[in-house]
Amino acid sequence: MILELEKDLTPEGKAQLIRRLKALRCDCRELPAVEGTQRIGILGKPGPGEEEIGRLPGVQRVVRVTTPYKLAGRQMHPHDTIVRVRDVLVGGENLCVIAGPCAVESLEQALTIGREVKQAGATLFRGGAFKPRTSPYSFQGLEEDGLKILAEVRETLGLPVVTEMTSPSQADLIFKYVDVVQIGARNMQNFELLKCAGRMGKPVLLKRGLAGTIEEWLMSAEYILSEGDGQVILCERGIRTFEPYTRNTLDLSAIPVIKKLTHLPIVIDPSHATGMREKVSPMARAAVAAGADGIMVEVHHDPERALSDGAQSLYPAQFRQLMRDLYVIAPVIGKRLDFTHMERVRTIGRRSREGSGKPRAGFMGRAGSFSHKACLQYFADAVEAVSFHAFRAIFEAIREGGIDYGVIPLENSLSGSIHENYDLLREYDLRILGELPIRITQNLLAVPGAELAGIRRILSHPQGFEQCRRFLSQFDWEQVAVSDTAAAAERVRDAADPGLAAIANQSAAEHYGLHILVPGIEDNPRNFTRFVVVGREPIETRKAAKSSLLCSARNEPGALFSILQVFAEHRINMIKLESRPIPGEPWRYLFYIDVEADLEAPEMAGVRRAVEEKSEFFKLLGCY
Ligand code: PEP
Ligand code: MN
Asked: Ligand 1 pocket: which of 163, 180, 182, 207 to mutate (most atoms <8 Å of CB)?
């Protein structure tokens, strides 16, 4: 059961309540607060009855948990859990890729594959050291030597490692060498093993059993959660059906089911699910499109000679291609897969602000705005995200040193460039350090209980109205423009009027407790906003793929042509060219140019000089 506590209960009052519950032999846990209400969960069947507990001082209300899995269910934990494995986050906006061989065979094999998968963008390395094989005569794994190799892969490549534990007797060794403890499909209901894994204090990756129902799987997660600290990642790896063509049948419908029932992240293992190399990538792509938080894939550089599961292991080149595909699919469903995230988080981590902890990044609007989403996707929790009410204030705060980075929108695929931010980039001495696309989906949000027929007035950012013109043309609603979409959601919540609605994104709905009356109301689903990160010092060390610049051409024949000619002569691809009037200088124009080249690379010095010489005004905004 869940105890909702009285609003003004002091920490001392809460501690006293917990002491009383313990004295009554209740197994209680502090739960995350929901909309400001503090909560305590009681597991199992408590000694005293519901009424008796409801009368204890500090208890406002007792809520029954209706599912047999308590800690794994959404009643106790409504918000998604994000599992942290060193610098890697699993769940939330992150798409996590776990890759490596089925089994660790040698240091050379593990490092070769580790380098390949890391380069392609995997963030966790997998490899079995204790292999549960169908036949006792098959390769059983290198055991402790295998674990040592995994630890060495982590030290050399910086990828945290995942390995399977097949018996509680391996717990000490596994604890010493690896970062994530995997429970294999065959052991999903090995309850002693689950309890042991829960007590280890490391994240656990729990595979679904070959014949396990979703409820049984969640009950197994419950075993781990009831012992540990909540760090469980679920992994669907195919179930046994009547279909013999593939090794197992991948139950992709488990993804939306799990998303509804539990807050735990889910990853998909298409390798064991299909057992066939050429079926792995299509299933991995489908898993991501269906909303999985990640994939776990077997990769081998020489699968013909692999000691286990060679037939289902991808060649490194296939894995690279899969990663490129996932990179494109991820933003469509609001997730991020980017190849440099870990490096970025580490670099930023090293730049902690003296005395005050994490670096700070400014975004425009309230929590739940698209800018906030972009900030979270780019930095995860490596920075403290700070809300601002004007773009200029973000630039000012970076200049004054109050914050370190800013996340600002630069252009929308439907409505074009955001000139205000180009102007600010021209005015302030900051650089573009990185970019990320965010898919913009708009929804009509209202307070719970409101109906479409009762809506009279809608609030949004002007861009929100602009992007939903076709939908809005069906109604005769009064439109009220506000500073950002999350502000619209906040005002609708505060007004508590069923005649009001906001156009905003799904996170704003979650953030402000609103219901989605109509989802996906934007005119065009291919609606992306390109956000850029601005700051003083570069974050990423890899070679930049792109440069953005501003320039103006002299007032003479062929002036713009001669600038563009420089790029043409050096075979540099131009991906954006836009002109816009220079504010305050009638009939004079500024050009926004993006090229696919690192104009700060030493070999580009000549190109840059030539463009500068041919322009009247020139400013390199950043290479990223
Ligand atoms: C594995 O991932 O190495 C493995 C043995 O998988 P499963 O338990 O899903 O068969
Ligand atoms: Mn395998």
From this structure: 207
